[in-house]
Amino acid sequence: MSSAVTHAGFELEGERSHLLPLLRDIWDSRTLIRTLARKDFYVKYRRASIGVLWAVGLPFIQAAVLSLIFSKIVRFHTVPPYSVFVFAGMMPWSFFSGSINQAVTSIVDGSGIATKVYFPRAVLPVVNVLSGFHGYVPAMGVLVLFAAVMHAHFGVALLLLIPATLLMLVLTLGFSLVLAAMHVYFRDMKYIVAAITFPWLWASAVMYPLRSVGSLVRYIQYNPVVGMIELYRAAFGGWHPAGNIVPGTGKLVLISVIWAAALTLLAFPLYLRYDRVFCDLL
Amino acid sequence: MTASVSLKGVGKRYVKYDDIPLLISRFRMRAGNKRSAFWALRDIDLEVEPGESFGVIGRNGSGKSTMFRMLAGVTAPTEGTVRVRGRVAPLISVGIGFHPELTGRENVYVNGIILGMTRQEIDKRFDMILDFAEVHEFIDTPVKFYSSGMFVRLGFAVAVAADPEVLLVDEVLAVGDLAFQLRCYDRMEEIRREGATVLVVSHNMNAIRRLCQRTMVIHDGKHVFTGETDEAVSLYNDILGNLNLAGTGEQSSHVEILDFSIIGARGKVSSHVETGDELTFRMDVRFREASDDPAFGFRIHKDTGQEVYSENTMLRQYGPVKAGESMRIEFRIRAALPTSSYIAKAMAFNHKSEGNLRAVSESISFFVSGRPFVKGTADLAAVFDVERLEGDPTTGNGQAQVPQPFSGD
Predict the structure, then answer these.
(1) B89: closest chain A residue by CA
(2) Mind listing the pLDDT tens digit for each residue in A135-171?
(3) Which of A12-21, A245-254, A257-266, B360-369 has the lowest mean pLDDT?
(4) B116:A114 CB<8 A
(5) pLDDT of A261 strictly over 80
(6) Residue limits of CATH 2.70.50.60 in chain B
(7) Domain ranges in chain A?
(8) What is the DSSP secondary-structure string of B139-194?
(9) Is the pTM of this model over 0.80?
């Protein structure tokens, strides 16, 4: 099993990379990706005394505060119960927003290694997303437990978590790849992403059910994360006859899928063109 | 086609973005401002065989690093082809990817995988890495507690353990203590004998001469010379000499320097000497105007600009000279100098006259290969007297005999 990209040597002619060699290099980098992701995750929590618990704790605390406040101010009737409803939306949202905010600088931050050793640059944002996923998995476990305690109605629907997670990963990856590449050229990208994160959260139906926004759905539905979040909710009993799944959920999910696919496809020409020359700007 | 490294017509163009924020300057580029593109390297051809050690020298900004980046595969050429066979291990800066919070052991694995080793390969070579780095008792300590020496040793140990087929060495040996540096040299030599290609970039001509069989000189992104290392080094010194310290000399209406050259130990013109060699600097001058009191001077600099020695013949009577008369002046020295590149200049002047009456020769550079372990400005050739003391040193019976510094041998 070869993990080495540079194992057999290489031939470079012109600055543009070719599709097949680049794909092969990325595939050959899987050990590198796994190792770096584990290292990233581990290093992040190493100094903290309760360590990895933070990875689970943070989205939980956010969701708890939000559901506490909102259940006092506006009483949304939701299925699953409102706290589960918020938590189920908050989980993928915090993974998504946390990942893209970190991934946007991943290529620039990786310049220490990246200017010395070659590996496909796409590895860096991928590592970022994967590293965040290490925290996502236990947090998801806690969410399922919490939902059970709160008597959310779910059964087979829980299996929807699998496509939901996949959709979340591809969507996050698509955004991460494109934003990280853009940030090498436009160093404002990092601030732009940070600036839109907060309004984006409010436009993402995390704290409120879609049916409560009335005709605004017309615009909100094109938000790439809305479909993803609705799919998570469906997994926690939103599919139930009494659930608050809006009739168009299928369409929302489809919009999310299209976003994910489009961004991933956009990443290809970007990395084919710039993979070997990012380094010149680092 | 057995070359393990080959460059064909390689050129690399960079676009300068100046100080304008990137976003804005990108748009300005679109607007047709193409002036700020420049070639960092152009028309470079190179073939290096397996088992060969090859040096690349040139001044800062000559394109060496750009070339190494392409050999490492981190950047692609704008034109031409770069071909590298086998695994490349860059020693460009050791310990790349070392994370301060991780232990030595964890960093060895992460760094090894970055360099393209598999987990199993690292397992197999772990003891070897430890032995080379000599960090046994600290291997499970976070590397932030390492001394810089330990850090570098561990980094180097991992890089050479990667069993590279092409080893890129960029100034890396400027770090660590001397004993470790020597071990690195040995290890690189070993790797080379096993069939790997070693490419070295350095400003340390001694390292280049020690490590490289062939050497390329590049200047301003262009190939100047490829061949014997000694020749390359003197060429590099010439380039350096020509650029440094107002190398072109000064003209005078009174006196003209016809020639200035170094005559080495064996009586021939040479820019290569060894410490202790008898060296002669010969200057031929022709007086355009008569002078009552001509004088001649001579100065040696290190290539860093630091003056090593200068003297002139003022107050000694060599005159008067008539207009049109020529003279040959020789400055003979013993090269009591440590390893370095040096630059020499000669002057001819009439110290009683006013105005621009002084002529300065073109700079010439020469390289001294010195004795090992000698550092500083001059090689004073110390005599070491070491003796074992009799009796118990604490009683004061066997006091060390202080050697007389100038007793000679």
Answers:
(1) A117
(2) 888 888 888 888 888 877 777 778 889 999 999 999 9
(3) A245-254
(4) no
(5) yes
(6) 252-369
(7) 19-281
(8) TTSBGGGS-HHHHHHHHHHHHHHT--SEEEEESGGGSS-HHHHHHHHHHHHHHHHT
(9) no
Q: CA-nearest residue of chain A to B22?
A: A186
Q: What is the average pLDDT across A94-107? A: 93
Q: What is the ipTM of this complex?
A: 0.81
Which of chain A's residues have a Cβ under 8 Å away from the Cβ of B99?
Answer: 39, 43
Q: Judge contact between B57 and B64, C-beta under 8 A.
A: yes
Domain spanning B87-164 has what CATH number?
Answer: 1.10.8
Q: Are A232 and A196 in contact (CB under 8 A)?
A: no
Which residues in chain A touch residue B165, judged by CB atoms under 8 angstroms apart? 9
pLDDT at B270: 67
In the three-class reduction of DSSP (H, G, I as helix; E, B as strand; rest coil), residue A7 is classed as: coil
Q: Give B-chain residues touching A186 at CB under 8 angstroms.
A: 22-23, 26
| CATH topology (fold) of B252-369 | Coagulation Factor XIII; Chain A, domain 1 (2.70.50)
Is the pLDDT at A1 greater than 50? The verdict is no
Phi, psi torsion values for B208, nearest 5 degrees? -60, -45
CA-based nearest distance B80→chain A, Å:
6
The distance of A142 to chain B (nearest Cα, Å) reads: 29
Q: How far is CA A8 from CA A25, A123, B164, in A?
A: 11, 19, 11
Name the pLDDT band for B237 (thresholds 50, 70, 90).
confident
Q: B374, B178 in Cβ contact below 8 A?
A: no
Phi first, then psi: what are they for B317, rounded to 5°?
Answer: -90, 110
User: In the CATH scheme, what is the code of domain B1-85+186-201+210-243?
Assistant: 3.40.50.300
Contact between A4 and B117 using a beta-carbon 8 Å cutoff? yes
B19, pLDDT greater than 50: no
